[in-house]
Description:
- The structure is a single chain.
- The protein is α/β, with parallel strands linked by helices.
- α1 packs parallel to α10 (407-419).
- The protein has helices at residues 85-102, 162-165, 168-177, 208-226, 282-296, 315-319, 332-344, 363-367, 385-389, 407-419; strands at residues 4-8, 11-12, 18-22, 25-29, 37-45, 49-59, 125-133, 138-142, 186-191, 195-201, 235-241, 249-252, 260-263, 268-271, 303-307, 324-329, 351-355, 374-377, 399-404, 423-431, 441-448.
- The strands form 4 sheets. It has a 7-stranded mixed sheet, sandwiched between helices. The protein has a 6-stranded mixed sheet with strand order 1-5-6-4-3-2, with no helix packed on it. A 6-stranded mixed sheet has the order 8-7-9-10-11-12, with helices on one face.
- Helix content is 24%, strand content 28%.
Amino acid sequence: MNEQIKVRIESIDAEAKGIARIDGKTIFINDVLPNEEVLIEIYKRKPTFDLARLIKIITPSIDRVEPLCPNFGNCGGCSLQHMEFNAQILSKQKVLIDNLKHIGRVETQNVLQPIIGTPWGYRHRARMSAKYVFKKDSALVGFREKGSPYVADMSECLVLPKHISDIIPNLRHLISQLSIKDKIPQIEVAIGDKINVLVFRVMEPLSSTDEEIVIAFVNEHNKTMLEKVQESNKLLQVWLQPKGLDSVYPFYPLNVPPLSYELKNFGIEMPYFPTEFTQVNPLINQEMIDLALNLLDIQEDDEILDFFCGIGNFTLPMATKAKHVFGIEGSSQLVARATQNAKHNNLADKTNYMNADLFTIDSQWLKTLGKRNKWLIDPPRDGAAELIKSITPDIAPSKIVYISCNPATLARDAGVLVNTHGYQLVNAGVMNMFPHTSHVESIAEFIKITHRL
């Protein structure tokens, strides 16, 4: 047994690991909170840091709570259930501000009120793993265990809506009945406003008997749902994915409403395929769009560039207020979907879309788009380094609103905008897109400084 050491937790990092220091060396520990005094055991030593496991909490934080989910600690889906909900928000806000300061060397003039949301049942998108265990003659369906490739043994998930969480035991039983029970590694969940979709990744085709079993499962579920008088009584539809994402197709039933979500404040309906990217938290998404458009202060004569536009989640709401919005996206499939959604919502005359790799562009390419007075940027975790670097004075917009799912890359890009391109960071804040996880979704507003003689 390694030596057990008493330490005080200084803070938690962007992955929810606690940080302590021994003789100036950083130690990372799971399942601890700031200001706790704990007993730890170091299990891995690195040149610049060590990893340790928690042995005992000596003095607990005032923010420590009992996790509500019985899977917490084993399931890797959540990492902060042991922290009081509002304290989670403040912790994420601190991560954002610290990243801006230490990585970007910038500070925001104003910290926005956080968008908080609801702590449970928020997750309308999920990719669950599946595994049939021959020794136990049983299937597992759920998220991976924390720090492990194994599927957690779970029968419910409290961050999924209850009507989806409730069918996890039924999905385990369903897989166990199939002839290809060991050839289904994944079930993707997509919850729309009118229908719930499950996408089964199938490594081999279903047999005719398997098809009958799946159809019976769906029919039984839908019969039960239709007997319930509640918002969650939407029908279930199963899709199959035999190969890559482009192989996905609806299996049963076929004559059902399309998968879609509504942006009520703008009268917009967004159809999408279950494997196309959409935000996991629809309530936060609605508030995020409202906030982004308020920060952009869109006027009737504004022409806006929407970088990393996806299926048009921001493009179409902006188009209801602006003169024109030009969406740019790296996936040709998403560009096609965005174009369809613009037509579906009678906004085709106020939008255009382009397929372009925004990670390889330069200033010459950017100039071909022409000058637009406002930009919205919503990149993946890698950020928008090439786009930001490519800004030149002749095409620089007066305002940029930047949505980020990674505070480190936002901070990096903010540093370039402020310290190289002459923007002011006037607003920044967090949006709790993934409660009980360390994920930090954030938003920042930049305004171009103009010098007058």
